[in-house]
Amino acid sequence: MSFIDATLCASLKIIRALHEEENIFEEKGIGFGGDRSLNIDLIAEKIFIKALSDYGNILSEEAGFIDNGKDKKIIIDPIDGSYNVSNHIPYFGCSVYLENEAAVVVNLSNGDYFVKDKNGKKFDNLFRKPFAANYRHDVIIFEKAYKNPDIVQKLSNHGLKFRAPGALSLSLCYGEFAKAVIYKGEIREFDIAAAQFYNSECHWHFEDDLILMSPEKKDLEEVLSIIKE
Questions:
Q1: How many Cβ atoms are within 10 Å of 101's Cβ, its own excluded?
Q2: Shared domain check, 144 and 101
Q3: What b/e sequence results for 19-54 when a residue is b if at least 16 CB atoms lie within 10 Å of its CB, and e otherwise?
Q4: What does the pLDDT look like over 39-75, one tens digit per residue?
Q5: Which residues have a Cβ under 8 Å from the Cβ of 12 and sit 6 or more positions away?
Q6: Could you report the per-residue pLDDT of 164-212, keeping only the tens digit for each?
Q7: CA distance 31 to 41
Q8: Same domain, 194 and 120
Q9: 222 lies in which domain range?
Q10: Alpha helices (runs of H) in the chain, residue ranges in sequence order
Q11: Does residue 19 form part of some domain?
Q12: Integer distance in angstroms from the first to the last C-alpha of the chain?
C-alpha cells in the first residue's frame, strides 16, 4: 500500500472513531506541541502511528519524536482544529507529511482531501465527487483573526472580506481557491509542513510570526502591503 493510501485509510478510521468512541473530548494533559491534548487527539495519533510507522520516523504534535529506525521523517498533526471538533464546528482535519515526498491533508468533517506526491497534486473527497466550480478567489482566509484586531481593521478599511475557520493546515490547502491566506501567531512545523508541500507552487511570505500565502503574486503583494500599513 502506498503512503498516501495508508494515510487516507487511517483518516477513515479516525472519522469512524469520532462517531463511535466515547469520551473523545476528555482532556489528557499537554502534548509535545504545547497545546492541550484531547482524547480524540491521542486516538487519532495512535491510528496514524500504527498505519505509518513502516514508512518513516514520526514527529507528532502529541507524542513528539518516535524513532522507527528509518531514514525518512513523517510530520503529523493528528487533529487540526481540536477546538472546533470539541465545539461541534465542522471544520477540522488531519495533516501528514512524508518529508520531501508526499503530503496528505484531510477534512475529517466532510471528507475533502488534498494529496501530493511525485505524481502531482489532487483535491478529492472520500465519500463523493468534489464540487466542480470556477471559484471566485476573492475572499481571504485569516487564521487567528481574533488575536489580530489591527489587521482585521486594515482589511475592513480596504473592503476585503475574510473568514477565520480555525484549522491552519486545512486553510492553507483550501487557500488555493482563495484570494490569500493570512496567519499571524506562533508558527509550528506540525501545522504547516503538509500544506506548504501541497501548495508549493503558490506564493508564500514568511516572517517570525506571520504566514501569507496566495495563488497569485499580485494578491500576495496587495495583502502584504495592507498588513504593513
A1: 16
A2: no
A3: eeeeebeeeeeebebeeebbbbbbbbbbbbbebbee
A4: 898 999 999 999 999 999 999 877 788 889 899 999 9
A5: 126
A6: 999 999 999 999 999 999 999 999 998 999 999 999 999 999 999 999 9
A7: 9
A8: no
A9: 140-227
A10: 3-20, 39-52, 82-86, 149-157, 168-174, 189-198, 217-227
A11: yes
A12: 50
